[in-house]
Backbone:
């Protein structure tokens, strides 16, 4: 036991308490109030069918198999997004060459039925 | 490490055997030798060259044979490569020379069906006791293992077989199970503590409750998909896993990663280290009943989490690394704001440092506890802050600079105490060093592109990639067969080495000190289980 340390941690903790008491409330009122998110936030995936060219790179790279491509012909296809499988890594957005895929700031896409989390983006829409 | 003299000594020691010498990527040297030479070769490395640090043992199925790789480290990497027959594969254990190899051999044994002759404790490590059939990392040998039943008693039978009753009135001996679910543990693992009176006399450890088979999963996914899988090995140090993996794959591809990307990687690595150490400080303080520090440390950890979320879009899963660079960027204004917040954080950490240095009850709970000597640390191949707290001066950021560490001013914190108190002081000191590194990166962030284009197919080859995670040396072995998917990815996380020392730390201490010792070791169980 070190005899040189006679001081008590209260010496250090009391200023900390004083600082804490003077700080405004940090807890946000979510879900009753807004929640600010950084612009980089990776939330629910949206696809702009007008931009999508159906190359399928996103489907190939998706680590969670959350994207599927159903193709009727060269210009007729559907990109299906399964939000319940998505890991929100953003690889689809990063690999998309036309900028059709964007991860929005929507972060709480809960639903009672998992089919409600299936989203279709068809072209031509 | 002088590779030439080692190779010369090995040639001299085994004149009848043909030794093959293969220089590898990332400054690794491979030496190929036959299975019966491994034990004498390891003895030679220890006795002649004082190379004691065995990073891990990788086992892999190479089709015609089972291959074992013993990854040593002493300033640079040295790997002994040997092959075993598929039928009845066995090799002499090296646990008698390197006690720290015990867990590595147990893992290879259950994952590939290799028998290590003379292993003192050949129980299962990660797989369940009732697992039968083909070992998970072997393919096409189900017939050989159909009948085999590895004797591996469950925790319950282990108690019965040990001859101890759960409570013996005459000797006062009692067995106390801690875990898999216990308020002390944040993640599942199981200890059986044998207690005589108040003293812990024996300890038995069981892990594997959160084993997810990530190494095998990696073989079924593309290199790109594996980034996100390996990010989920650990929920605290996710970024360092992707960094180590990406730098390995980049070495295989021969890519030159832009400086800006390397600096941003480093920035996230250091922020993650601050976050990990603060998280640990909170958990540890709570373990010993110092809830005030727990609350404050976890509150201030939010500062780093907010910065990381702002930079990458995720609090824990950053998804910042890609093969060939990073996906995140920081502009001038953002950098300025981060520097301001880091200053706030530093002030808070100064408070923590003063409290844990001077608070008497904190000292009484942690001093002279869980002591590990310099020799114990070296023989158990312990890494990171656990090793540095016992006086072993090792830090891969300085010894084998990766990412942008080469150009940064880095002071490695070491201490000689080797007890829980030293470890706490040292980790808090490391936070200051990390803050110092973050500031340097933000102030001297070079311009330029963030990524280089990486091909999808990785040429055939193998690489050993190392990095300093918050808990110490993290090592990845990646082998490519030229396809879009890796043929083998081996991960050894730093906590694996810390777990081995727990039996040394726990024996002979008071039962009331067990939470302090387990907390002070900074375990990350999901990392170990993978």
Residues:
């Amino acid at each position: 036991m070190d005899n040189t340390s006679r001081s008590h941690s209260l010496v250090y903790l009391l200023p900390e308490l004083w600082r804490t008491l003077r700080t405004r409330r940090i807890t946000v009122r979510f879900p009753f109030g807004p929640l600010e998110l950084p612009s980089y936030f990776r939330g629910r995936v949206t696809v702009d069918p007008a931009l999508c060219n159906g190359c399928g790179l996103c489907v190939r790279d998706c680590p969670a198999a959350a994207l599927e491509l159903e193709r009727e012909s060269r210009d007729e296809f559907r990109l299906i997004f399964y939000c319940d499988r998505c890991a929100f890594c953003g690889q689809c957005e990063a690999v998309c060459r036309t900028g059709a895929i964007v991860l929005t700031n929507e972060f709480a896409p809960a639903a009672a039925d998992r089919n409600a989390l299936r989203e279709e983006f068809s072209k031509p829409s | 490490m002088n590779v030439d003299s080692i190779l010369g000594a090995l040639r001299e020691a085994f004149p009848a055997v043909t030794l093959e010498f293969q220089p590898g990527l990332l400054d690794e040297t491979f030496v190929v030798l036959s299975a019966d030479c491994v034990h004498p070769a390891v003895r030679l490395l220890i006795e002649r060259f004082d190379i004691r640090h065995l990073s891990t043992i990788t086992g892999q199925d190479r089709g015609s044979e089972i291959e074992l790789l013993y990854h040593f480290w002493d300033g640079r990497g040295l790997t002994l490569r040997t092959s075993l027959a598929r039928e009845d594969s066995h090799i002499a254990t090296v646990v008698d020379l390197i006690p720290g190899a015990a867990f590595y051999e147990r893992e290879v044994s259950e994952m590939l069906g290799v028998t290590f002759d003379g292993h003192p404790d050949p129980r299962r490590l990660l797989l369940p006791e009732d697992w039968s059939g083909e070992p998970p990392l072997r393919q096409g040998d189900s017939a050989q293992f159909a009948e085999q039943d590895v004797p591996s008693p469950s925790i319950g039978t282990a108690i019965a077989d040990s001859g101890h009753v759960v409570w013996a009135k005459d000797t006062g001996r009692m067995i106390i199970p801690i875990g898999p679910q216990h308020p002390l543990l944040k993640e599942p693992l199981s200890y059986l503590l044998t207690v005589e009176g108040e003293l812990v006399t024996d300890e038995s450890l069981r892990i594997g409750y959160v084993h997810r088979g990530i190494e095998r999963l990696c073989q079924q996914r593309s290199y790109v998909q594996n980034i996100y899988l390996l990010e989920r090995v650990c929920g605290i140090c996710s970024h360092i896993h992707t960094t180590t993996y990406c730098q390995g794959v980049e070495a295989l591809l021969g890519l030159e990663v832009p400086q800006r990307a390397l600096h941003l990687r480093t920035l996230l690595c250091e922020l993650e280290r601050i976050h990990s150490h603060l998280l640990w400080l909170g958990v540890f303080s709570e373990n010993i009943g110092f809830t005030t520090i727990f609350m404050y440390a976890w509150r201030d950890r939010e500062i780093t989490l907010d910065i990381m979320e702002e930079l990458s879009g995720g609090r824990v899963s950053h998804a910042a690394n890609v093969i060939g660079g990073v996906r995140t960027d920081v502009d001038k204004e953002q950098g300025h704001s981060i520097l301001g917040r880091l200053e706030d954080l530093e002030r808070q950490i100064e408070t923590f440092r003063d409290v844990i240095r001077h608070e008497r009850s904190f000292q009484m709970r942690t001093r002279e506890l869980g002591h590990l000597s310099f020799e114990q640390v070296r023989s158990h191949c312990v890494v990171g802050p656990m090793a540095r707290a016992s006086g072993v001066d090792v830090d891969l950021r300085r010894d084998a600079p990766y990412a942008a560490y080469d150009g940064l001013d880095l002071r490695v914190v070491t201490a000689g105490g080797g007890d829980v108190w030293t470890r706490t002081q040292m980790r808090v000191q490391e936070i200051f060093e990390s803050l110092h590194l973050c500031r340097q990166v933000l102030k001297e962030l070079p311009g330029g592109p963030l990524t280089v284009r990486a091909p999808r197919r990785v040429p055939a080859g193998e690489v050993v990639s190392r990095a300093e995670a918050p808990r110490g040396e993290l090592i990845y072995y990646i082998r490519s067969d030229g396809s879009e998917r890796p043929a083998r990815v081996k991960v050894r996380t730093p906590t694996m080495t810390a777990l081995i020392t727990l039996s040394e730390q726990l024996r002979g201490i008071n039962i009331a000190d067990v939470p302090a010792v387990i907390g002070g070791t900074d375990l990350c169980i999901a990392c170990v289980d993978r």
User: Anything to note?
Assistant: DSSP finds three helices and five strands in chain A.
